Amino acid sequence: MTSPIQYATQGTRILLTSLKNKIKPPRYDGSAGDICRKVINDCWNGRFFQTSTNNFPQFWSRDFGWCTQSLLTLGHEEKVHQTLRYALNRFKQANQITTTITPGGKPFDFPAPAVDSLPWLIHSIRLSAFPHYEHRVFLNQQIKSFFDKFINPLNGLVKLDLHVSSMKDFAVRKSSCYDNCMAGMLAADLKKLKLDNPFEKYDYPAILTEQFWNGSFFFDDLAKKNYVAGDANIFPFITGLIFDRKMLASAIQAVEGAGLADPFPLKYTTSRRHVHFVWQEKLMPNYESDALWTHMGPLYIKLLQHVDKDKAALYTQRYTQEIEKAGNYLEVYTKDGRPYATPLYTCDRGMLWAANYLTL
């Protein structure tokens, strides 16, 4: 359980770094490709890949998982293995897999235990062929704990009324599409790694289609409200659980029609009206509603390349322009494309996510 002292300590650290960035934003010289390569180099601290060089100089399970394939493609296999070794050793000491590890090396959940921490860690292990045998007992224990904590054994869905952290960690959702994608991705990876797999009897592609697909797009969560959410409509495809090209084209059409990729991808939603947020969101309003997130943008563009190559190229060029304008890879932008900032928080810079831009 995360203590109030940990919240206060980490929050203060992020606030102070954020204010420093506001006064003098760090910049790199060169083309967008040069800038992104420098960012990745600086995210490597000699022990592990940090999520960023500024506000979040620490290991995050989900952020690393989003970048693992790109980091491997870019030739960083040994560094990926070292990062996994670092994370697993600290998780084992704490006897839990968490959303993040503080810069001081303490596993930490924000703002609650997350459905995607274990799945992305396991996914990174599988993608990188990390030698995980010595960690099998610990991983199998964590798999059982994950299943017992998060999964409804009657149907394989993430429990409906459980408040969990997730990709959109300020939002309170009812068994989100993204979280169920994480359960499905975990099930597929466990089978390939020959780890214990309590998910074997569930057909997650069918579950996602039956429970979330409305004929045009995937609902955000099991409340099934009539709005389009960015993460809900890319991760069924990013995880490889849904392969149907017509469904992909329809989901992208819904995302574009809702304005989630305007002026460049990708927003979670275009409104906060349908979503309930935790209290911390008041300190950073609209941070996870209609803001433009650069962790999702390149992932969306990669999917769009299968449907509309010209538009994918247009969005890639927009990212190139923004990276060169900022001299950095920024975390998040306002809905109209300005770097996100409030009196208390300035968007992070030097994001490891730059790896996904380099592999577009």
C-alpha termini separation = 38 Å
Number of helices: 13
Number of strands: 7
Overall shape:
globular
Quote the average pLDDT. Answer: 93
Helix content: 40-55%
Q: Order of strands side by side in the largest beta sheet?
A: 1-2-3
CATH class: Mainly Alpha
Q: Biggest β-sheet: count, sense, barrel?
A: 3 strands, antiparallel
- The arrangement of helices and strands along the chain is HHEHHEEHHEHHHHEEHHEH
Characterization of the model:
The protein has one domain: Glycosyltransferase (Alpha/alpha barrel). 46% of the residues lie in helices and 4% in strands. The termini are far apart. The mean pLDDT is 93. A 3-stranded antiparallel sheet has the order 1-2-3. It is globular. With 360 residues, it is mainly alpha-helical. A hairpin with a 5-residue loop joins strand 2 (100-101) and strand 3 (107-108). The chain has 13 helices and 7 strands.
Describe the structure concisely for a colleague.
The chain is mainly alpha-helical and 360 residues long.
Strand and helix map with partners:
Blueprint: H1 4-23, H2 32-43, E1 59-60, H3 61-73, H4 77-94, E2 100-101, E3 107-108, H5 117-128, H6 136-150, E4 171-172, H7 177-193, H8 204-212, H9 235-238, H10 245-257, E5 276-277, E6 292-293, H11 297-304, H12 309-326, E7 332-333, H13 354-358
Helix pairs in contact: 2-12, 3-5, 4-5, 5-7, 7-8, 11-12
